[in-house]
Design a protein that fits this description.
The structure is a single chain. This protein is mainly beta. It has one domain (2-151). Helix content is 6%, strand content 42%. The chain contains 1 helix and 11 strands, in the order ββββββββββαβ. It has a 5-stranded antiparallel beta sheet, with no helix packed on it. The chain has a two-stranded antiparallel ribbon with strand order 3-6. The chain has a two-stranded antiparallel ribbon with strand order 4-5. It is elongated and about 80 Å long.
Length: 160
């Protein structure tokens, strides 16, 4: 879904706000340590590898505006927000064919989506590791602001 609201330039200002809601699912993961090829983590249960695509970012919001100020000055700003990409919770176990295994009770790319944190913490407790709080999970959420200021300067050529 894509929604856009814009005001064309008039009365010395313009703005644009756009929102995108997207969802991308696929099978397998493209691991760089696996030569960049898709792989299945558990051949006996391939459904564990069905989930959000590695590039899935559900929400994107962009707001921008420009105002023409007195004395030939212009002020503009762009704010961009993108929700976090998913990630998988891997265990320390490696299968016989060299594939990393998911934490029991989880599947591919549930992080930043619907990760079963209770399953992750149960696995950690079995391995003598402390529990992880939701607030401790790092995210690659993006929120940036870009502000621009410009001043026109007119130069006049001198006669040769």
């Amino acid at each position: 879904m894509f929604v856009r609201l814009d005001k064309r330039f008039s009365h010395r200002y313009t703005y644009l706000v756009s929102y995108t809601l997207a969802k991308a699912d696929d099978v397998g993961s493209r691991e760089t340590n696996n030569g960049g090829f898709f792989h299945v983590t558990d051949q006996s249960n391939p459904s564990l590898d069905v989930g959000p695509a590695d590039s899935d970012r559900r929400n994107s919001l962009v707001a921008s505006g420009t105002a023409q100020l007195p004395w030939d000055m212009t002020l503009g700003a762009v704010w961009t927000y993108r929700s976090a990409a998913p990630f998988s919770a891997y265990s320390a176990n490696i299968s016989a064919d060299g594939q990393r295994q998911y934490v029991p009770g989880t599947s591919r790319n549930q992080g930043n989506r619907d990760l079963n944190l209770a399953a992750v913490n149960a696995y950690r407790a079995l391995n003598g590791l402390p529990a992880v709080a939701d607030s401790q999970i790092q995210t690659d959420r993006v929120s940036t602001v870009d502000i621009r200021f410009a001043k026109s300067i007119r130069l006049q050529g001198r006669p040769g």
